[in-house]
């Protein structure tokens, strides 16, 4: 199989060929550490986590770098509002980030550099740009001269003259051209500062990513990722300053995930319509959020709503329920070895090829939506086999069901879902359903006993009434040879 990636630079899918065969250097822009992460951050993190997982699953050795911006105007302002240092604020929000990512099953990056720990690298890169004539000092600030870089705008498809007409020089800026951007900012009273050849100050936002990515991955990265909102100006500026400094291609494959929207409107902190990961996970299982974030192709917009999360929860429930029932049958007491129908054999064969189909979907520009479609097809096939096994039990189903479960959980490795023990997941869901019903376990058991007695007495009306009452409360009853069992209405 061959991997193809949609390259933002070329606007087309390209065969993936890393600089060094078998190895991938990948950099993804991390958070500015001043507030809790929202679902937009979650989408980027989960998307690129799936990318890393698939690359590694298919044999690539990946060095994954994701930075933290820990000095910035927003951090300075928020720290001042809270009466704490920028160091304290950034550290707190980085810890929140790691907590959120762990909950979502996002793997830690191999390297997680912070801007403030790389000031010497940033200064050295700025000095190179000044020496080569691509940057200039102006009263303690240093700016990149955009017009000195001929292909500026190529990544984001921006025209310099159009940009020029909308650009302004803000009060206090000393740049020569409105298009120029800051590489180093002279210190203002009360702000954190570091010594530099141009006087005390701090780095601009764009330069930190160039300095840190090239330090750990070299002058040319295989993959650089981030949200679509970063394509301009952040990534455009990164590309310009990096290539101006090295004279080499900065990134071979640019990847950008689409926006998360709410009722069709882009979600952002500046618009005040963002929803934090913490808030969502207080109501929904982390894997349900992860499944939702992967339910559309990463380049497409994704509209958030509680209803969409409930749909993802229901899909996740169905997967875990099928796996749990398959485990239960495989461990069960059935000993008779009656032949199983050809339809069951065909479904088991379909499930056995799931890994190949998921990998093929992921090789087509990491098409997680298609990959999940294959997973749901396999789960439907598993349910058909379970239905046939229930009608005519046979010990010959056992090995097939074990293999099917292994095939499904192995195939979703790149997607990062179905990581829990199915029985444990369902136990939690049952507990949630019981809490939501307003019943205690004792009260539920009393109703089940009353229903069983009503059935013995052939009082079918009362038995049905109890069943329907519990169903309305989200609890399903199932009569088995071992007795009546209850579960969440999945």
Describe this structure in words.
- There is one protein chain.
- This protein has 3 domains: 4-257, HUPs (Rossmann fold), CATH 3.40.50; 310-420, Isoleucyl-tRNA Synthetase, Domain 1, CATH 1.10.730; 424-488, no CATH class.
- The chain has 17 helices and 15 strands.
- The mean pLDDT is 93.
- The chain is of the alpha/beta class.
- It has helices at residues 39-57, 73-82, 86-103, 119-131, 160-166, 205-217, 231-246, 277-281, 286-293, 306-331, 342-352, 354-363, 368-391, 396-411, 422-437, 441-456, 460-472, and strands at 4-7, 12-15, 23-28, 61-66, 135-138, 141-144, 181-186, 201-203, 221-227, 251-257, 260-262, 265-266, 302-304, 475-480, 483-488.
- A 4-stranded parallel beta sheet has the order 4-3-9-10. A 4-stranded antiparallel beta sheet has the order 5-6-7-8. A 3-stranded mixed beta sheet has the order 12-11-13.
- α2 (73-82) packs across α3 (86-103), α6 packs across α7 and α11 (342-352) runs antiparallel to α13.
């Amino acid at each position: 199989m061959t991997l193809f990636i949609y390259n933002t630079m070329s606007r087309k899918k390209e065969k993936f060929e890393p600089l060094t065969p078998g190895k991938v250097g990948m950099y993804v822009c991390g958070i500015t550490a001043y507030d809790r992460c929202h679902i937009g951050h979650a989408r980027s993190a989960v998307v690129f986590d799936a990318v890393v997982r698939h690359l590694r699953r298919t044999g690539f050795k990946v060095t994954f770098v994701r930075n933290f911006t820990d000095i910035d105007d927003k951090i300075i302002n928020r720290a001042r509002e809270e009466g704490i240092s920028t160091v304290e604020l950034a550290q707190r929000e980085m810890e929140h980030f790691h907590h959120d990512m762990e909950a979502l099953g996002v793997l830690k990056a191999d390297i997680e550099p912070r801007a403030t720990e790389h000031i010497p690298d940033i200064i050295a890169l700025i000095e190179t740009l000044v020496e080569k004539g691509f940057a200039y000092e102006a009263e303690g600030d240093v700016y990149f001269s955009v017009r000195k870089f001929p292909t500026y705008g190529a990544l984001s498809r921006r025209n310099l003259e159009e940009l020029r007409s909308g650009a302004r020089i803000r009060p206090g800026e000393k740049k020569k051209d409105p298009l120029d951007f800051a590489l180093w900012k002279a210190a203002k009273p009360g702000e954190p500062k570091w010594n530099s050849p141009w006087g005390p100050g701090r780095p601009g936002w764009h330069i930190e990513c160039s300095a840190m990515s090239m330090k750990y991955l070299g002058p040319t990265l295989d993959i650089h990722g981030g949200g679509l909102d970063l394509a301009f100006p952040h990534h455009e500026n990164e590309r310009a300053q990096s290539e101006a400094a090295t004279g080499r291609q900065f990134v071979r494959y640019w990847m950008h995930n689409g926006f998360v929207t709410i009722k069709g409107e882009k979600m952002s902190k500046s618009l005040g319509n963002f929803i934090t990961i913490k808030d969502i996970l207080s109501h929904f299982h982390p894997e349900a959020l992860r499944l939702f974030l992967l339910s559309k192709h990463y380049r497409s917009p994704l509209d958030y709503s509680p209803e969409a999360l409930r749909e993802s929860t229901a899909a996740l429930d169905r997967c875990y329920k099928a796996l749990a029932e398959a485990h239960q049958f495989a461990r069960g007491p059935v000993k008779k070895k009656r032949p199983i129908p050809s339809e069951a054999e065909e479904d088991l064969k379909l499930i056995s090829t799931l890994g190949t189909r998921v990998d093929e979907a992921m090789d087509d520009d990491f098409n997680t939506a298609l990959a999940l479609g294959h997973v749901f097809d396999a789960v439907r096939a598993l349910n058909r086999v379970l239905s046939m096994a229930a009608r005519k039990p046979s010990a010959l189903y056992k090995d097939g069901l074990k293999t099917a479960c292994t095939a499904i959980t192995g195939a979703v490795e790149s997607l990062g879902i179905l990581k829990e023990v199915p029985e444990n997941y369902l136990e939690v869901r049952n507990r949630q359903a019981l809490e939501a019903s307003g019943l205690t376990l004792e009260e539920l058991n009393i109703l089940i006993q009353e229903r069983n007695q009503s059935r013995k007495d052939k009082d079918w009306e009362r038995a049905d009434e109890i069943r329907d009452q519990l169903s309305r409360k989200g609890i399903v009853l199932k009569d088995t040879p071992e007795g009546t069992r209850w579960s969440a209405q999945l």
